[in-house]
């Protein structure tokens, strides 16, 4: 407490030192309050800032240190960073440039700045974070800005100084600096306003308006005004947004009729797509003083695009007027291309004349315009019939061969102004058109001329408005004059108007050529009703289709037919579209496949008008009515929602079958593929109608199924009455069992009727059911589930089961002998019987069945003798066979009380219970007993258990435990060989084999003579000796045999031979080597065979394969690890010396190092030390890993292996699990301190430039 009081007292002294006197009690009371501590620090720094004269930098730094001392001693609730922030904030707000710069030293002034080390001299340590620095600077800068009276105020300089401390100028800081710059612009434009007013101005665009209002010519300083708009952020946070300002500039320029400036700004606005500028664009576009008509038209187009709906009408009127002026200007240019020049094709027109085109043109031009107007009016009057447009017409065609462009051709003076590019004048007479085409082609000029004529005619006639089709008609006039219709029509999308005009056009052309009508006046042909003209011309050319027409007329006739067809297609497609069925009209007209699918799709309807349209279209486009009818019938069955009776009535009323029966095979195929799958199996009424249709359409002959439609009809009529819930489709499905389908619906009420139908129901094999089999299925159901009439309660007790059997036995005379056996097996040897019935009940039922069959057999014999039948036809033989079957069952049931079977069933082990259950179901049948015994053997059960199972089974099965074990071995060998596809178990086959061998071994140990080791070896020898099979499983089989049995020397040598042979066949497949090895086998068995084998392999191999042979020897030695044949140290050393003599250093080193013997390690180190230069033949990753595993790093430090060893250690320490720290410790203890330190530095990522000898030694001393 004394120390605490001393610290509080020292804080009070510090406060008094800086002129802020506070009692000790105040310091003591506020030491835990962060808020009071903060207020105290702020008061202290602000008090210092107000001192006069100003405090020096040294005193400020002293104050900072005192603040930190106060924080550390008493005000620990206040973070030191807060002290720095308070101190920096006070410096910024001290109204001193020097203090502001000092504050800059206390802050992070850019996002990339970092804290300087505390030992750095001359500058304090940076403490205030970058984000907090921005906040402090902005607060101080805004305070200075708001308190300024003008741009020249001293506070404005302080604000700028604060903001410029942040070096990378983030957006918030840049916005404040831009606001200061904007004040300068405002002063330049003469706007007097306080800085605070500028900041608080919500509509800063008004400041731009004030600038424009100061002087009429200010709008010309557009760059400066736009710069001011950017600085003021006129559009909020969107820096660079200037479109609102541009609108002001345009308005100002327009007020002074400065169209050039206004146009420049409007183009900029249009380029940005600023929709709000439509109004100023329309103002400039409507300015008559602006002579650039093209630009004005663009402005009006932009205004029309972006204006509100209420302004469209007025703008359209202005745009139309502009377009008229442009057209007049274009035509004037065509006739008078240059002022002062004299066009040779126009006489009597002076260069200065500028009257309207239709009142001043030359006689030739007047002639053309007159002809054009008369022709146009005649056509328009003819086309004004509204009904005509709704049927079928098309474009016009040129009347005659005269070219409209002849008016403009002038002969020798054609290129007098040398404005056209063409060939040499010498060749002009040889070429029709020696000049390159200009943009204003004759076709373009003709279009302009016609549009101009239309506008003039509208102007002169006033309210006499022409039809809306006038534009298309005028285009046809142009085609008639210039003759380029084909290309035009090809490019047009098909529509009612374009197709009708096309037909009209070609009709005119054909008529004009067949009956020329070229006169000065308009011929009556052009006043004729287009419909009548098309019909007349079409009829004429069709009537004389075989006539020898000229080639030109033939082409026109083909075009007429083509467009007539397209028009008919289109009108019918329009009708389809009107139905609302989603028909694509364009595609229907052009795509034949789509057209066919559409017609068939329309046939899938119950609407009479749509169906009639589908029939009409099918007839029109040659879609067979058979397809339409069968599609409609399919729809009725599948998607119409109609009942079967309604379907029948509709099909009858439409008369579908007269057509459908013409192709019975196709009809049957279609119905079977698309209709039959949609019918529910329990819907007997619809199935009956389906097969009735097939029968009525003559499909019986083409049905390949065993059951014909006629039979289906008879069966369905019967089943519909007696078994309404039957799935008839499943019953007659050739892939289903018909008895399983019948079983759910069989009852005592319908069994007789259904049994009579059985001979007509096919089975999977193609044969028919028998009544007996149906009764057998029903009796099984009756026995287990009872019946409402015969057995009203489901049996549960033994007496009830016997009563149920007695009830069923009454029907035995209706069963075939085989079906009796099947029934008895179902109620005595099925899983349900084993679970539900006690053994006593099953035995009693079987006894009764034997008695009943004997009675039936005797009855059959009497009947046979009475009828004097031959033996081959004697049915009693079948009863004898059934009787034997039942006696076998009875004998098997009596074995269920055997102690062994009882033990299995009562066992708590699930596996043993399963064996008892399987035996119960087996009926002592040889196949099932054999299968169960093999399964027990595969499960590794003792052989005496297998033997007991075979002994308990009834009869002489001819099976022995030896047979069972042999079969199990064959199964496992088959799996290992890949020849047995059936997966007998999910266990590992080698594990299963080991279990079998263990069971045999246990049996042999007990003295049982069931299976011997000789038997196993005999069964497994072919597998182990089969070199076509994988090596590993064969070796593993031999190892299992070795571990289980103490084999004789001969057998042991034989196993070694097999093992050696297996390894060599995999590693050395050459036949000669194997023969030699077999020949010298006796030699190999003396001494150590593996050493001899290695020497033999090295001796026999060619020089180029020595390296490969050395690796194979290494593999052989490694395969012997963890076995009885693992090589001793002496043999390994001998083998390594053999390898070294052959210059095979690497495999030799691997054998020596991976052995755990110190003497062999010493030999390896001698060889490593002797290596002067390391390469891939003497060193690889594996030997380096082995050296690290053997902890031989220290002993290799003075060898050439050292660099590679260290690099391998550092690169793979995670995979190898080696401890670098431990290895470095070993190196230091061995006297390799520098090496140990260098290893640690590399491990810890020290830069290579810093890994000097001295630092390595220091690192070893420091880290180890």
From TrEMBL:
GO cellular component labels: Dsl1/NZR complex
One of the record's GO molecular function terms: SNARE binding
A single GO BP: retrograde vesicle-mediated transport, Golgi to endoplasmic reticulum
InterPro entries: NBAS_C, Sec39_domain
Cellular compartments annotated: Endoplasmic reticulum
NBAS subunit of NRZ tethering complex C-terminal domain segment(s): 924-1048
Major localization class: endoplasmic reticulum
Domain Sec39 as annotated: residue spans: 3-326
Record's keyword terms, sorted: Endoplasmic reticulum, Protein transport, Transport
Protein's name according to its UniProt entry: NBAS subunit of NRZ tethering complex
Native source organism of the sequence: Serinus canaria (Island canary)
UniProt gene name: NBAS
């Amino acid at each position: 407490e004394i120390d605490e009081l001393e610290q509080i007292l020292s804080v009070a002294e510090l406060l008094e030192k800086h002129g802020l006197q506070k009692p000790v009690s105040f310091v003591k009371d506020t030491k835990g309050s962060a808020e009071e501590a903060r207020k105290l620090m702020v008061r202290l720094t602000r008090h210092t800032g107000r001192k006069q004269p100003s405090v020096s930098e040294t005193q400020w730094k002293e104050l900072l240190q005192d603040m930190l001392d106060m924080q550390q001693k008493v005000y620990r609730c206040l973070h030191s960073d807060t002290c720095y922030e308070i101190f920096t904030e006070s410096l910024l707000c001290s109204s001193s440039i020097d203090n502001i710069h000092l504050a800059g030293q206390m802050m992070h002034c850019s996002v990339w700045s970092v804290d300087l080390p505390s030992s750095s001299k001359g500058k304090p340590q940076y403490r205030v974070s970058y984000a907090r620095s921005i906040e402090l600077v902005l607060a101080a800068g805004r305070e200075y800005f708001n308190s300024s009276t003008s741009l020249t105020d001293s506070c404005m300089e302080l604000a700028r100084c604060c903001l410029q401390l942040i070096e990378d100028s983030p957006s918030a800081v840049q916005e404040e600096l831009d606001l200061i710059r904007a004040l300068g612009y405002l002063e330049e434009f003469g706007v007097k306003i306080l800085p605070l007013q500028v900041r608080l101005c919500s509509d800063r665009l008004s400041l731009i308006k004030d600038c424009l209002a100061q002087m009429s010519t200010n709008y010309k300083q557009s760059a400066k005004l736009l710069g001011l708009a950017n600085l003021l952020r006129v559009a909020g946070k969107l820096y660079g947004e200037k479109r609102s300002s541009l609108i002001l500039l345009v308005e100002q320029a327009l007020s002074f009729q400065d169209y050039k400036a206004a146009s420049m700004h409007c183009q900029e606005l249009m380029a940005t797509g600023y929709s709000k500028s439509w109004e100023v664009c329309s103002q400039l576009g409507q300015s008559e003083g602006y002579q650039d008509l093209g630009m004005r038209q663009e402005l009006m187009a932009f205004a029309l695009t972006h204006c509100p709906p209420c302004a469209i009408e007025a703008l359209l009127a202005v745009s139309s007027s502009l377009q008229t002026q442009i057209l007049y200007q274009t035509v004037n240019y065509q006739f008078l291309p240059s002022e002062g020049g004299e066009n040779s094709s126009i006489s009597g027109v002076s260069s200065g004349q500028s009257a309207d085109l239709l009142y001043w043109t030359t006689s030739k031009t007047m002639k053309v315009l007159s002809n054009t107007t008369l022709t146009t009016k005649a056509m328009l009057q003819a086309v004004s019939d509204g009904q005509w447009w709704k049927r079928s017409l098309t474009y016009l065609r040129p009347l005659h061969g005269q070219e409209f462009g002849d008016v403009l051709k002038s002969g020798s003076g054609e290129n007098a102004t040398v404005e056209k590019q063409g060939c040499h004048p010498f060749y002009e007479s040889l070429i029709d058109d020696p000049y390159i085409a200009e943009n204003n082609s004759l076709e373009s000029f003709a279009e302009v001329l016609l549009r101009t004529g239309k506008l003039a005619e509208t102007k002169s006639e006033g309210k006499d408005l022409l039809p809306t089709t006038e534009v298309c008609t005028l285009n046809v006039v142009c085609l008639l004059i210039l003759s380029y219709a084909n290309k035009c029509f090809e490019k047009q999308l098909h529509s009612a108007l374009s197709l009708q005009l096309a037909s009209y056009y070609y009709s005119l052309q054909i008529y004009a050529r067949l009956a020329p009508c070229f006169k000065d006046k308009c011929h009556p042909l052009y006043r004729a009703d287009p419909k009548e003209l098309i019909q007349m011309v079409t009829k004429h050319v069709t009537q004389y289709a075989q006539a020898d027409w000229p080639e030109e007329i033939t082409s026109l006739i083909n075009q007429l037919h083509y467009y007539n067809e397209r028009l008919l297609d289109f009108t019918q497609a329009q009708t389809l579209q009107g139905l609302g069925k989603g028909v694509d009209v364009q595609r229907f007209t052009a795509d034949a496949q789509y057209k066919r699918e559409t017609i068939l799709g329309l046939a899938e309807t119950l609407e009479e008008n749509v169906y009639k349209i589908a029939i009409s279209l099918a007839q029109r486009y040659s879609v067979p009515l058979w397809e339409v009818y069968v599609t409609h019938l399919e729809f009725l069955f599948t998607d119409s929602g109609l009942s079967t009776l309604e379907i029948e009535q509709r099909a009858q009323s439409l008369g579908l079958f007269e057509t459908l029966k013409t192709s019975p095979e196709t009809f049957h195929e279609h119905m079977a593929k698309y209709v039959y799958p949609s019918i529910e199996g329990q819907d007997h009424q619809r199935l009956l109608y389906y097969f009735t249709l097939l029968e009525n359409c003559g499909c019986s002959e083409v049905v390949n199924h065993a059951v014909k439609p006629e039979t289906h009809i008879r069966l369905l009529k019967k089943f519909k009455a007696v078994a309404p819930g039957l799935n008839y489709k499943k019953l007659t499905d050739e892939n289903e069992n018909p008895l399983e389908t019948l079983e759910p619906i069989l009852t005592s009420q319908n069994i007789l009727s259904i049994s009579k139908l059985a001979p007509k129901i096919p089975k999977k094999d193609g044969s028919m059911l028998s009544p007996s089999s149906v009764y057998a299925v029903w009796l099984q159901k009756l026995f287990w589930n009872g019946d409402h009439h015969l057995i009203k309660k489901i049996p549960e007790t033994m007496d009830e089961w016997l009563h149920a059997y007695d009830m069923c036995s009454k029907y035995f005379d209706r069963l075939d002998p085989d079906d009796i056996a099947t029934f008895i097996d179902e109620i005595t040897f099925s899983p349900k019987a084993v679970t539900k019935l006690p053994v006593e009940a099953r035995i009693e039922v079987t006894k009764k069945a034997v008695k009943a069959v004997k009675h039936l057999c005797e009855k059959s014999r009497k009947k046979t003798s009475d009828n004097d039948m031959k033996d081959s036809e004697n049915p009693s033989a079948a009863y004898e066979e059934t009787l034997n079957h039942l006696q076998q069952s009875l004998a098997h049931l009596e074995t269920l009380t055997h102690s062994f079977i009882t033990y299995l069933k009562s066992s708590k082990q699930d596996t043993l219970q399963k064996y008892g259950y399987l035996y119960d179901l087996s009926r002592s049948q040889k196949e099932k007993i054999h299968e169960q015994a093999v399964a027990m053997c595969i499960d590794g059960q003792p052989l005496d258990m297998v033997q007991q199972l075979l002994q308990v089974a009834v009869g002489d099965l001819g099976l022995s435990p030896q047979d069972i074990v042999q079969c199990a071995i064959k199964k496992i060998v088959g799996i290992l060989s890949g020849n047995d596809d059936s997966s007998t178990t999910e266990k590992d086959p080698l594990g299963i084999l080991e279990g079998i061998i263990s069971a045999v071994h246990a049996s042999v140990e007990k003295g049982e003579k069931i299976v011997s080791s000789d038997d196993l070896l005999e069964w497994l020898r072919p597998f182990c000796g089969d070199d076509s099979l994988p090596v590993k499983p064969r070796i593993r089989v031999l190892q299992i045999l070795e571990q289980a049995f103490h084999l004789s020397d001969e057998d042991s040598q034989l196993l070694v031979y097999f093992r050696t042979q297996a390894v060599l066949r995999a590693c050395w497949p050459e036949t000669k080597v194997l023969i030699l090895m077999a020949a010298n086998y006796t030699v190999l068995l003396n001494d150590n065979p593996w050493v001899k084998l290695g020497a033999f392999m090295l001796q026999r191999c060619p020089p180029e394969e020595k390296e490969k042979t050395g690796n194979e020897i290494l593999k052989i030695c490694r395969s012997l690890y963890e076995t009885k044949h693992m090589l001793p140290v002496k043999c390994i050393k001998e083998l390594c010396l053999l390898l070294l003599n052959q210059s095979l250093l690497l495999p030799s080193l691997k054998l020596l190092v991976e052995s755990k013997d110190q003497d062999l390690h010493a030999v390896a180190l001698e060889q490593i030390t002797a290596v002067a230069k390391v390469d891939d033949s003497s060193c690889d990753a594996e030997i380096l890993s082995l050296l690290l595993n053997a902890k031989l790093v220290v002993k290799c430090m003075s060898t050439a292996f050292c660099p590679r060893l260290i690099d391998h250690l550092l690169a793979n320490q995670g995979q190898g699990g080696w401890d670098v720290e431990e290895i470095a410790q070993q190196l230091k203890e061995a006297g390799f301190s520098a090496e140990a330190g260098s290893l640690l530095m590399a491990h810890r990522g020290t830069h290579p430039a810093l890994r000097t000898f001295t630092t390595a030694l220091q690192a070893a001393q420091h880290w180890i």
